[in-house]
Amino acid sequence: MPLSGGGVTASVRPDEGRHHRESTASVRLKAQRLRRALDTDRLEDAVKIAADVAAELRSSAAAELSPKAYYDVYLSVCAELRLLEMYVMESARRGAPVRELYERVQETPLVLPRLYLLVTAGSVYVKSMQAPPKDVLRDLVEMCAGVQHPQRGLFLRAYLSQMMKDKLPHAAAVENGEEDAAKETGAVAGGTVQDSIDFVLRNFTEMNRLWVRMQHDCSPREMELREKERLELRLLVGSNIATLSRLVGSDLALYRGKVLHAILDQIVSCNDAIAQEYLADCVAQVFPDEFQLATLDAFMQMCGKLKKGVKMRTILVSIIDRLRRFSASSADAANTARDAHAFDVFRSEMPGVMRRQGTSLPLTDRLRIYSSLMSFALESEPERFEHVDNVLGFCVADMDKFLGGEHPKKDGISPRTAVRLSSASEGKDRSYSALSAEDERLAVNVLTMLLEAFGSVGSVLQLENYVVLQRFLSYDKQRALAAQLLMSAKGYTPCIEDEGTLEKLFKYVAPLVQDRRVDERGMSEKEGVEFERFDVTSLTHHHEYLLALIPQSHMSAVPGGKPEGGGTAAADDVQVSERYTIEEMATFQEDQELVAKIVYLCDDTDVERALSLYASLRQELLHGGPRRVPITLPSLILASLRLALRCQAEEKVEVVEDVLGFAGECVSLIPDSHALLALRLQLHVAATGASLGKHAWRFVYDNLSEAFVLFEQHITAAREQHTALELMIVSLGQTQRSLDGEAFAALSRRAVKHATQALTRSDQCVLLCLCAQLFDVEHAGLARECVDRARRAAVACMNAAERVLLLLDVSRTAVAVHEAGVCDVTEENRLADTLGKIRDILAGRAAKSSPLGKLAAARYQRLVRHLKSCSKVFEGLDYSRL
């Protein structure tokens, strides 16, 4: 058995090496004499020599040794005494009386050698069963009281315990009917388990007293050295508890009624921090799990009586982790832990333990204890949310005290309800010191643990103390936890049924919606924060066919200052984007996308209730400011449109207008710096209104008109203008049937006007081609005019590659208009002239050799084949010019 349990360095004394060498050399020399005496059957001489060997443990050299060096000498002495024991045992087997030797060794003049010899002879006396074992054991344990020197007495009693541990009856042997086997191995036959327990408890009590005296019998300057030496000897004392565990076996009544009470009384009464910490941890580790559960209340009450300064983290984490592992081992074990109400015991006794230790138990150790307790609560009874909330309440109460606040409950935690901090509105000083890095890590670990265990936003919302504990963290940690909470919503099962629950959720995820650290109310430390805009750049626009031809230098973002179009919002966005790294912006985007998904947690089975929830959600999202709204609000708008479609399917026509109106209002809240996004959403609302039938035509017209207003007032970048016009023209064509003639005519002419005013010829051509396909026979003139303007814009392009591609677009548009019966494009050879221009360009040498020319030629041939296959439709076309 090693002397120390790791982590403790041996103490160093002056000249210890020399004294150690002297002692071991003396033992070896005398051991040779002892062996010769035993070999020649001179027992009386052997006893005297053995006394001299044992006397080395009280010599002047041994007195200068540290416990570790003394232990080495002790092992040498014990090895020689074992030889004497074996010789006497062999004599006893041949019938020699042991009593004579037992009495003879008591004539040894020196106390320490006499008692070592007495234990050696007593061991044979008990094993030979020539005397009542109970009397011998009682005699030995009382005689050992003759040595009161702490170190010598401790090793003497350790020798007594070591010599007798395999000769004591234990409960397991008695229960299994192994009395005969016990006799064969030399175990006590005439005694009881109770006698063995009494012996071990008495010896343990005396050893613990000697162990404690080692430190108290020294000067303050030697205190640190003695602490190290005591720690080196702790296993000698703890071995008695292991022996008691073997004696008790599976007899819970014996353990509860006799053993545990005596051990706990000794731990409390010794009033020594080192002894209390080590022995309490031994109790937590040695006895069976079922015993720990059955007597947990007594153990925790003992913990509440320990001396201030005891490292309670070691003790409590040890017992909690052991019960957690037991609870997780099987379903039966979990039921056992549940039936024992283990967590209720922790919840009721833990505040008293913490209060007893006061500031001597630092916040870091407390959080480590609560982290283990959280693991136990989640393993044993995961469905009991109040247990988890109580652990969070423990953390909150201690943080509130250690970081400078005032807690409304002086004694800590209420055993039934979650703990809440008083609100800032009560006028108290709510300033707190910042958590250390380690304390913050532990607090985050506690919160993360339950998020991983629950995997449900609805479950976490039942925890009142979650958001209170979260507010002690830094903003970055708050934000990360809020994001993890939303990521735990697997499948996004609706769990929000009323505005109160929604408001509560936003307290939990407030760090994602605000740019500052938030308190327990979900409010920012600094109200009225001006949020920043980001991620908008202006790029020079060219037709998509020509992107491969444009030098890369022309594709870069507009440098600082006013972008193309003269707006200032985009310039601000460029400046803001420079303050954030790519990783930070990506993280921000991901976080806001999680917030946007909150709409899927809202229960929309009842339309009216869903609309009310959406209205509350909109108000919460708007707190994020213009930096977040463009990311978070679109999902709410699209969810509203889905709700409108469902209302139509359920024939709830009266609600449709309210839902569409709500969606339109949400679009109007998108910041002007994201006008293109707002325009897209506006068109979505118009398209949804168009799918609902003629009765929603007003929403269609209003949203299309609003899209044109957004285009005219807020979209200034050329590329965005082109994209916006494309979207509006396509949407106008899709919603045409939902508009009356006058409304459609007004909007279509507006589209043609903007297409004609596009910045580049390529843009004009592409947009006018789209406009031409809007019109029917009644507006044939407008269709023909759009085709003609598109052709002129294409011809005006200077670049030959650009010109041929655009002319192909014009030709295909003319064919589509003609086939639709809108107007005749073969008149005056309009189509033939256009195709002739294409053919002339493709006939050039450069066009035949370039990849772009080959692409254009292939498209042209496909178009010609189509025209020839539809010759009846294009009767007026001069095919000779193709």
TrEMBL record:
GO terms for biological process: intracellular protein transport; retrograde transport, endosome to Golgi. It holds the Pfam family Vps35. The keyword Membrane applies. It is a peripheral membrane protein. One of its GO terms (cellular component) is late endosome. Residues 1-26 are annotated as: Disordered. InterPro entries: Vps35 (IPR005378), Vps35_C (IPR042491). Residues 13-23 have a biased composition (Basic and acidic residues). It is found in: Membrane. It comes from the Eukaryota. Keywords: Membrane, Protein transport, Transport. Plays a role in vesicular protein sorting. Belongs to the VPS35 family. This is Vacuolar protein sorting-associated protein 35. It comes from Chondrus crispus.
